[in-house]
Predict the structure of Phenylacetone monooxygenase.
Amino acid sequence: MYAAYRLRLAGQSMRIFEAGDDLGGTWYWNRYPGARVDIPGVDYMFSFDADRSRDWRWPEKYATQPEILRYLNQVADKHDLRHDMQFGTRVTRAHWDDTLSGYRVRTDYGDEIGCRYLVMATGCLSVPKDLDIPGVENFTGEVYFTSRWPHEPVDFTGKRVGVVGTGSSGIQSIPLIAAQAAQLVVFQRTPCFSIPAHNGPIAPDKLAQLLDDSAYRQAAKYSFAGVPLERTITPAFSVSADERRQRYEGAWQRGELLEVLNLYTDVMSNPLANNDFEPSRVSCTPRYV
Ligand SMILES: Cc1cc2nc3c(=O)[nH]c(=O)nc-3n(C[C@H](O)[C@H](O)[C@H](O)COP(=O)(O)OP(=O)(O)OC[C@H]3O[C@@H](n4cnc5c(N)ncnc54)[C@H](O)[C@@H]3O)c2cc1C
């Protein structure tokens, strides 16, 4: 969507092919129960849309998939971005052609086009992992992939459900599926840990910052991950164990993912610093079935 916006500004003509039947990418495909962003919604917005804080209000800190999809559609409509998009069309082949001095592109819809530039906005997480469990062909029940969830809600009432994986999608969907299912078993290869989200309404001080958001957005632009946050310069073991525990506790209580990654310079690179944060809280014991 951003590429479409910028290329139009640059006066380029373009065709955009999308395999899905509508726009949204990640947020079009991932419709599983509980799907949400893991950074605050106010920070997960298009920077090219200058009036975003005025025109869009997230009802809660961490937006759900349906809200994000609504937001993306609102931005597309506002900037007339659907104009060049062709949905339900997968690019199957693209190669450079010297005679054309450009690419020849084919789609499964039968399009054959030539173009000078080819932008692969195909996503970093858009291909689901295949089912590669020996014997799975003998399973006669229903199989769902979080990243290819049906558009209609799936009713698990009275069913026995197995969830494979405890990454973000597993963690988000397990409690909601468990609330419906007769029984739910989680298959976990590698335990991971998760911090509490403390989701809820957006804090008043954050809303105040967004009233005139130019300073906030400028800080985001030069930040570590698009969220204004002063980078720490303190290594974990340069402070006392008591001080570390207090900071861990504060971050845990606030539930800000990026704050956790930014607690100490080496929390993500030094295993000792990482372990110092982790074992005080993890109660994630694998259960083998
Ligand atoms: C469940 C989930 C939660 C996430 N939460 C966050 C978050 O909180 N914060 C964050 O920063 N990131 C998050 N991400 C990462 C997310 O993928 C990116 O933030 C962002 O949406 C990626 O956008 P994209 O346009 O690069 O790719 P995508 O949104 O993946 O879009 C790529 C599109 O290309 C299409 N495509 C692929 N191949 C072809 C082809 N051959 N022909 C035609 N079309 C094709 C796909 O159908 C897809 O629609 C999350 C990802 C997932 C899966």
